[in-house]
């Protein structure tokens, strides 16, 4: 690796003040860094701007303002676009191969592989076998899931440094999903690789992601370290409803009622601190249980909306 590449490689994606108007919704401003060697999941409700963000990363649409850098380089410098794109594998939400004049998977392979000096034919062949896609199959007869698999294989076969996957498992059967997840884990075994992927399936986030980027209606809710989030956010169960007079309880998000066999569930964003405070008040937790990632994310979004409303009122 030359000095130039070394300098570029510490950050796979860097967005600074990126904004784009989408109808009456504004995507951004986005400040975001994806460190090389990490897997980052992009999550958010339908219409939050995830696919648009991928299109911005691929220079398929332009930001109204701000700066987009991939592998340390902005688009727009001389000849950089082709160089950058040879080092990135992109699986879009919908593949469009019609304009390329290819009829079969084999013809598409012949067309695509010429563009990539790092094309790994052995890897391509093993993946098409694994995902059961024969070169003879006609592109227009492929199902949605088969198209997703092919799009992924074509993106992975030139062994890019960065994979950008926009709902890559959408429409895949459970066996193909499992294989793709295993393949992604294997992809990350080699140094210097990164993945930025969007999904609505929290199990994929749980299994693959180091960090979660959460957007809602175009706005960045936050960037979270997944393991830390799951460690911090827990449900702490006690016998007595905590009384304000007993003193402050750190980290508490909500206190439920005793409908659960007489136990009171307390949702905490800082469970160790909450447990310790409850114990010191003589209300020692009976048990502490993990929370679903989707519930944590929903509460984080609610908090952000409430904070925004509070700030407006002031
Ligand atoms: N070029 C455009 N002009 C105007 N509005 C657009 C444009 N592209 C996307 N939008 C709108 O921006 C919003 C975000 O779309 P986008 O496809 O990025 O969301 P998403 O988070 O990927 O959604 P989903 O989870 O449903 O795939 C949508 O309301 C969409 O209709």
UniProtKB/TrEMBL annotation:
<dbReference type="Pfam" id="PF00005">
    <property type="entry name" value="ABC_tran"/>
</dbReference>
<keyword id="KW-0547">Nucleotide-binding</keyword>
<dbReference type="InterPro" id="IPR027417">
    <property type="entry name" value="P-loop_NTPase"/>
</dbReference>
<dbReference type="GO" id="GO:0016887">
    <property type="term" value="F:ATP hydrolysis activity"/>
</dbReference>
<keyword id="KW-0813">Transport</keyword>
<keyword id="KW-0067">ATP-binding</keyword>
<dbReference type="InterPro" id="IPR003593">
    <property type="entry name" value="AAA+_ATPase"/>
</dbReference>
<dbReference type="InterPro" id="IPR003439">
    <property type="entry name" value="ABC_transporter-like_ATP-bd"/>
</dbReference>
<protein>
    <submittedName>
        <fullName>ABC transporter ATP-binding protein</fullName>
    </submittedName>
</protein>
<dbReference type="GO" id="GO:0005524">
    <property type="term" value="F:ATP binding"/>
</dbReference>
<dbReference type="InterPro" id="IPR051782">
    <property type="entry name" value="ABC_Transporter_VariousFunc"/>
</dbReference>
<feature type="domain" description="ABC transporter">
    <location>
        <begin position="6"/>
        <end position="242"/>
    </location>
</feature>
């Amino acid at each position: 690796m030359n000095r130039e590449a070394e300098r570029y490689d510490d950050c796979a994606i860097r967005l600074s003040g990126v904004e784009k108007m989408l109808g009456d919704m504004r995507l951004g401003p986005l400040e975001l860094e994806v460190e090389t060697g990490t897997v980052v999941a992009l999550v958010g409700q339908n219409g939050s701007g995830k696919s648009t963000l991928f299109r911005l990363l691929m220079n398929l649409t332009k930001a109204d303002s701000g700066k987009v850098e991939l592998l340390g380089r902005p688009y727009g410098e001389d000849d950089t676009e082709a160089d950058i794109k040879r080092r990135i594998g992109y699986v879009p939400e919908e593949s469009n191969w019609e304009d390329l004049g290819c009829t079969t998977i084999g013809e598409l392979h012949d067309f695509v592989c010429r563009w990539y000096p790092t094309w790994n034919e052995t890897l391509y062949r093993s993946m098409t076998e694994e995902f059961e896609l024969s070169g003879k199959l006609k592109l227009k007869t492929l199902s949605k899931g088969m198209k997703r698999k092919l799009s992924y294989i074509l993106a992975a076969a030139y062994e890019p440094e960065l994979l950008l996957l926009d709902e890559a498992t959408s429409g895949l059967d459970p066996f193909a999903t499992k294989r793709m997840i295993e393949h992604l884990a294997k992809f990350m075994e080699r140094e210097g690789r990164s993945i930025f992927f969007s999904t609505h399936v929290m199990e994929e986030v749980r299994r693959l992601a180091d960090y979660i980027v959460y957007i809602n209606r175009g706005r960045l809710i936050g960037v979270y370290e997944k393991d830390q989030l799951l460690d911090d956010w827990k449900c702490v169960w006690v016998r007595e409803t905590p009384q304000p007079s007993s003193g402050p309880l750190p980290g508490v998000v909500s206190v439920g009622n005793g409908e659960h066999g007489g136990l009171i569930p307390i949702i905490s964003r800082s469970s160790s601190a909450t447990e310790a405070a409850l114990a010191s008040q003589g209300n020692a937790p009976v048990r502490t249980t993990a929370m679903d990632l989707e519930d944590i994310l929903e509460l984080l979004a609610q908090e952000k909306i409430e904070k925004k409303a509070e700030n407006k009122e002031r």
